[in-house]
Write a structure and sequence with these properties.
It holds the Pfam family HD. Belongs to the NadD family. GO terms for molecular function: ATP binding; bis(5'-nucleosyl)-tetraphosphatase (symmetrical) activity; metal ion binding; nicotinate-nucleotide adenylyltransferase activity. The chain is an alpha/beta fold. The protein is built from 19 helices and six strands. A six-stranded parallel beta sheet has the order 3-2-1-4-5-6. β2, α2 and β3 form a beta-alpha-beta unit.
Length: 394
């Protein structure tokens, strides 16, 4: 038999997945297509939807397709799902069958980066659902890999189906309708079970996440910022809960790779601050995005305080200013002039903001490092504010 294999997270399964399977079946004259959901796929974020629920949705989606079935091999195996291990096991169980591994053009381009791609090619043929927008040179390394292994991909020219499980999850989390992109029974199941809805993380959940995803010394710094921010809140007022939350989360993504931060920023439709020329501040932008879209925190005070805690900005709210200064003066900081800045922060918050901005910009300039445009505009703004205030008091 000729059997197609379509793997993925299927989180959730959508009409695009069914289209890929139908196109492969028609063009390659397959006898059957197996949908193979991952358990813990490499390089993917954990999901609040369980593997069992993803399998259930697959069964619902395929219930009207007798030539399609679900294999729970990778789910039952648990652990990270590597394709080369799966196809080797399938060949061992069914040595007389020919397997066609079905992937999209975007996956083919990066196939050479997969774990043991030669091992995959040993046991399966590869069928590529072609998509427009990929220049030929993008797949040069994968093409060479295939040549070296005496293989040729089976290419299937199809209509472009622009459906993404990630986009569906985002739309559902934001309360938007995405059900037209799903098989009817899957849409009904998601509505019934209230899957992918956005429930705000509690302070305890965020605290656990932060502690697990930053280095130990970074967490000590974060605790210091929380302490300093709450002391400033006692002096100047403000929403203590929002201030504590922003202080806890301001560096939550600081220890992630720049590639992760950029992917997150682009995924949610933003451009990197300063066009990505200042990688040291990307964690702030990405952190605000992560808080809003993954952790479902919708408090603008908190989101802006996280987003601008490294750069500042003109017309900051009280919460933003408190987090911005607390990050500078927490008890673990020991740079020259920090004691003066701590004293100033207790006397005049705007003057402390201006002093911190000025000091940071001078420091970056001395190192020939880029200064974010938003920081320069913030310094200009607070200089004008304080000058006007001085004139008014005279």
């Amino acid at each position: 038999m000729n059997i197609g294999i379509l793997g993925g997270t299927f989180n959730p399964v959508h009409l695009g997945h069914l289209y890929m399977a139908e196109e492969a079946m028609k063009n390659l004259k397959l006898d059957h297509v197996i949908f193979m959901p991952n358990y813990i796929p490499p390089h993917k974020e954990n999901s609040s939807v369980s593997a069992a629920e993803r399998v259930k949705m697959l069964h619902l989606a395929l219930s009207d397709h007798p030539d399609f079935s679900v294999s729970t091999f990778e789910v039952e195996k648990t652990g990270i799902s590597y394709t080369y291990e799966t196809v080797e096991e399938l060949h061992r169980r069914h040595p007389l069958d020919t397997f066609f591994f079905i992937i999209g053009e975007d996956s083919y381009v990066n196939f050479w980066k997969w774990k043991n791609p030669e091992g995959i090619l040993k046991y399966v043929e590869v069928a590529v659902i072609e998509r427009t927008g990929f220049p030929k040179e993008a797949s040069s390394k994968t093409d060479e890999l295939f040549r070296q292994n005496h293989k040729k991909a089976f290419r299937i020219l199809s209509e472009t189906v622009d459906i993404s499980s990630t986009d569906i999850r985002i739309r559902l989390k934001e309360g938007k309708d995405a059900y037209e992109l799903l098989p009817r029974k899957v849409a009904e199941y998601i509505k019934e079970k209230k899957l992918y809805l956005c429930s705000p993380w509690t302070f305890q959940q965020l605290q656990t996440y932060v502690k697990e995803h930053v280095k130990p010394m970074r967490y000590v710094h974060i605790e210091g910022v929380v302490e300093a921010a709450l002391l400033l809140s006692e002096l100047y007022g403000g929403n203590r809960d929002a201030i504590a939350l922003a202080a806890l989360c301001h560096d939550m993504l600081k220890d992630h790779e720049v590639s992760f931060l950029l992917e997150l920023i682009h995924r949610y439709g933003e451009m990197p601050v300063d066009d990505g020329n200042s990688p040291q501040i990307l964690h702030a932008q990405a952190g605000a995005i992560y808080l809003e879209h993954v952790c479902c925190i919708r408090n603008e005070e908190v989101l802006n305080a996280v987003r601008y805690h490294t750069t500042g900005r003109a017309q900051m709210s009280l919460t933003e200013k408190i987090i911005f200064i607390a990050d500078y003066i927490e008890k673990g900081r020991n740079f020259p002039g920090v004691e003066n800045l701590r004293k100033l922060a207790g006397e005049n918050l705007d003057q402390a903001v201006l002093a911190a901005l000025s000091g940071t910009i001078k420091h970056l300039e001395s190192l020939n490092k880029p200064v974010a445009a938003v920081s320069r505009s913030a310094m200009d703004y607070y200089e004008r504010v304080l000058q006007e205030r001085t004139k008014h008091e005279q």
